[in-house]
Amino acid sequence: MGLHVQYYGMLAEVTGQAEENWLESGRLTVGEFRKLVTDKYPELLGKKFKIAVNRRISEDLAPIDPQSEIALLPPFAGG
Amino acid sequence: MEKEHKPRKVFVEGPISPDFIAKSIASHQSKTNIGAHAIFLGQIRADEKEGGVVSGIEYTAYEEMANDVFYEIREAAFSKFELTCLHIYHSLGLVPTGEISLFIFVSSPHRRAAFEASEFIVEEIKNNAPIFGKELVGEGGDFQWKENR
User: Fold this and answer.
1) Lesser CB count within 10 Å: N end or C end of chain B?
2) What is the CATH number of the domain that holds B37?
3) Confidence at residue B1, expressed as pLDDT on a 0 to 100 scale
4) What is the pTM of this model?
5) Which of B103, B123, B131, B132 to mutate to test the interface with A (most CBs of A within 10 A)?
6) Of A9, A56, A71, which is closest to B60 when you measure between CB atoms?
7) H-type helices in B61-147, by residue range?
8) What total of structural domains would you count in chain A?
9) Using CA atoms, how far apart are residues A4 and B71, in angstroms rounded to an integer?
10) Cα separation, B106 vs B74, whole angstroms
11) Is A32 within a domain?
12) Are A78 and B129 in contact (CB < 8 Å)?
């Protein structure tokens, strides 16, 4: 079962794509996911971003259910 | 009994025209329990950056989440303030310098609720709506990503 991962704004430029599917078999926390995604794209380490799980900003200890939609959100600029 | 407030369409493609704003005002003339409107307009500023002057902002958003956030902001505003109605519009895509990217229109029987609600809504949007802006700088196609403070 997989995670649907989306990258917004400048983060899509860093990763070279707007979205991708991750085949994750185990259950991750948000913090574990953050480690995996920054291992995969080391340039993310220098960027500020929040992680939304199923459209909710989530803290590092929160668990991620299988098949979740995950979004990496750079600083907001609305208004 | 609490009224239910349905989610409304917030995002519009490109700048928000003064004509659209005028028509929104006119459409409230029949709501005669309103005594005060407060309107907040966000306009694209020609900031000077290294490499030139900002010529516009290109907005993108995590639209599904942003719509959830706008809905929550609406609900919170209706519960905190005595409002008759409330409209929020935000641009996506390119908005040139000098044009409007955010239109908040709050109506109430009395002025204080209208003033306070409009400020509350702007701050909530800036802090919580997942909207991203690329500032286009100078003539050479340069850009930088905007960040709300």
Assistant:
1) N
2) 3.90.1170.40
3) 41
4) 0.94
5) B132
6) A9
7) 63-80, 111-128
8) 1
9) 24
10) 10
11) yes
12) yes
**Mean pLDDT of all residues belonging to chain B:** 95
Residue A42 lies in a domain: yes
Q: Chain B: nearest CA to A53, how far in angstroms?
A: 10
B136 belongs to a structural domain: no
Residue B120 resides in a domain: yes
Q: Which domain holds residue B69?
A: 11-43+61-131
Spell out which residues of chain B touch residue A73, defining contact as CB-CB under 8 Å: 62, 130
Domain that holds residue A46: 28-56
ipTM for the predicted complex comes to 0.95
A37: in domain: yes
Indicate the angle between helix axes B63-80 and B111-128, nearest 10 degrees.
Answer: 150
